[in-house]
Each structure stands twice: as C-alpha cells, then as structure tokens.
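Box 3.1 A note on notation
Throughout this textbook, protein chains are presented in two layers. The first layer is the amino acid sequence; the second is a token string describing backbone geometry. Keep the layers aligned when reading.
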Amino acid sequence: MTNVAVIYYSSTGNVHSMAKAAAQAAEKAGADEVRLLKAAELAPAAAVESNPDWARHAAATADVREASAADVGWADVILFGTPTRFGLPAAQLKQFIDTTGGLWAQGKLVNKVVSSFTSTSACHGGQESTLLALNNTFYHWGSIIVPPGFADPIQFDEANGNPYGASSISGNTPDNVAEANLAAVEFQARRAVETAAALLRGLATATTAAVA
C-alpha cells in the first residue's frame, strides 16, 4: 500500500492549484490513499483581510484539513508545495515542518519519499533556492528525495525546465498556473508514487529474505 500526503501552503491559490493537480495525479498513479492538506495560516487576520485575493482564497479553502505531524508519519510519499518568500519556503510551511522533530527523533521519517514544488510572482523569483532549501530538511530526515529532473518531455516545455521541482510564475495573479506547469507537477507526483511503490516492494522483499 502507498499512502500519499500533499501538504501545501497557498495565499492566493496558485500553489493550491498545483497541490490539487499533484493529489489527483497520485490517485491516478495507483496510490491507495491521498490526503490533500494545508499548513495552518500564521498571518494575522487583518493581514489576510487586507488583500481581497488572499481573503477570498482563505474562505474558499476553509474546508481543506490542516496537516498534522501524524499525517507525515502516516504517509509513504509526501509532496510539499510552497510559494517563495525571499527565496525561501513560506513561514507557514516551515513552521509546520518544524513540528516533525518528534518523528525525526524516533527515526520515523527515514525512507519517506519526498518531493516539492513552488510558485513565484516573477521569473527568477527564487524558485530553485526555495526547493533546495526545502530539501535541506529531507537530508536530515533520511528521506528519499525524488525530483522531476528532466525525466519526462514535459520538463522541456518553455514554461517548465526546473529539475528540482515543478514551478510556476503567477505574475501576481490568483489561480494563474500554466497548463504545462500543472502537467509538470502531475508527472512529478506520478514519479514519486512509482518510486515509493518500488521502494516499498524492495524493502518488503529484503525483510522477507532476512527472516527466511
């Protein structure tokens, strides 16, 4: 069985659109259960309400469950999505990741298959550095990082080309993700699920052989 958690933070909807595409692709790739989860909002309500697009997206996704550390422990595959904040992951997602220390201390994050995606308002807005910064966490976890690389023709589309993870350029426009970007994150999710399934089969075989 392969369990997938797509955990994201989105303020105006672009990363949310990518997260939905990733979750749907994971289901089509044969995952047994997929959870679409958001990181809790940390910004003051006044800040959210001051931006109509932010407030509108918060209301539209009020029914999306907030992620918990238990979801990370449950998942075999974790896909993280975040907008870029000065070339780094958004504080909301980083704060959530910081709650996983207990799982890490118990060795429960070893061999999780992880991958990440992002969105920026402008070209060269810190997409690569954001994903590389997220990966620093996964090295500590002992997880298996599965990037999209250039392993599929979609990565050569002029709207894509980021080998670290799918990324989009919003132009400061809500829900403005190119179809090619959605296709890229769908490929990335499929690749992660397929890798996890192969890993789980291999580990199960190795365990059976050791017992025998």
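The chain has one domain: 3-211. The longest strand covers residues 77-85.
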